[in-house]
Specification:
heterodimer; A: mainly alpha; B: mainly alpha; 4 helices
C-alpha cells in the first residue's frame, strides 16, 4: 500500500460519503425536479467513485464501466425531464 | 510513481473533493430547484473533472488517459445539459423561482410551488419564441 493508493481509496470513500449526503436532497426534495437533480448528481459522483476505485486497484477496465455509467446517467436525466412535462420539449 | 506524481494526485483529488463538498452544501442551503441545479451543474461538475484528472495521473498509461479524457469531455458537456433540461421542465411545469420579496412559504424551505395554470402556459409561450 503506497501513499497514492491510500489517497485514492480515501478519496473514493469521501466521494461515497458526499454522494450519501446528496441522496438526502433526493429524499426530502419538495419537487420532483429536486429529486432528479439530486439523482443526477449522485450518478456523477458514482462515475468518479468507479474511476477512483479502478485507479486504486490498478484495473483500467473500470474506466469503460464508468463511461457507460455516465452515458446512462445522462439518458436518465433527459428521459425524466422529458417525461415530467406534457409537451416534452426540453432541449 | 514518483513523489511528484503522488503530490499532484493528492492536490488535485483534494481540490475535487472540496468543490464537490461545496456542491453538497449548496444543494442543502439554497432555496429552490433552480439554485440547487446551479450548484450541482457547476461546482459538482468541476469537482468530478478534477477527481477524474487525479485518477488519470494515477493511472499513467496512454490508453487509460485517453479514455478518461473522453469521459471528462463527456461529463463536461452532459452534466450542465442535463441540469438545463431538468430546470427547463421545472419552468414548463410553472414552478416559480424564489425571490427575496416573494418568499411566501411558511415552511422556510423556500420552494413555492404555486403554479396558476394560465401563468405557466404564458411563461412557456414566451420561452417558445426563443427556441
Amino acid at each position: 500500500m503506497t501513499l497514492m493508493v491510500d489517497a485514492l481509496i480515501i478519496g473514493a470513500a469521501v466521494f461515497v460519503a458526499l454522494g450519501l449526503g446528496i441522496l438526502g436532497r433526493a429524499v426530502l426534495g419538495p419537487t420532483v425536479q429536486d429529486r432528479v437533480v439530486a439523482v443526477n448528481a449522485v450518478g456523477t459522483v458514482t462515475v468518479v467513485v468507479i474511476v477512483l476505485a479502478g485507479a486504486a486497484l490498478g484495473e483500467p477496465g473500470f474506466v469503460d464501466v464508468a463511461l457507460v455509467y455516465a452515458l446512462l446517467n445522462f439518458l436518465v436525466s433527459i428521459g425524466l425531464s422529458k417525461m415530467l412535462v406534457e409537451r416534452g420539449r426540453v432541449i | 510513481m514518483t513523489a511528484v506524481g503522488t503530490i499532484a494526485v493528492l492536490g488535485i483529488l483534494m481540490t475535487g473533493v472540496a468543490f464537490t463538498a461545496v456542491a453538497v452544501v449548496g444543494l442543502f442551503r439554497l432555496p429552490d430547484v433552480y439554485t440547487r441545479a446551479h450548484a450541482t451543474s457547476k461546482s459538482e461538475t468541476l469537482g468530478a473533472l478534477l477527481a477524474l484528472t487525479a485518477a488519470a495521473v494515477a493511472f499513467g498509461g496512454v490508453t487509460t488517459t485517453v479514455k478518461i479524457a473522453a469521459l471528462t469531455l463527456f461529463l463536461l458537456v452532459t452534466s450542465p445539459t442535463a441540469a438545463h433540461a431538468i430546470v427547463r421542465s421545472a419552468d414548463d411545469q410553472g414552478i416559480t423561482p424564489w425571490t427575496r420579496n416573494h418568499a411566501d412559504d411558511a415552511s422556510g424551505d423556500g420552494v413555492s410551488t404555486g403554479p396558476e395554470p394560465d401563468e405557466g402556459s404564458d411563461r412557456a409561450g414566451t420561452w417558445g419564441e426563443w427556441t
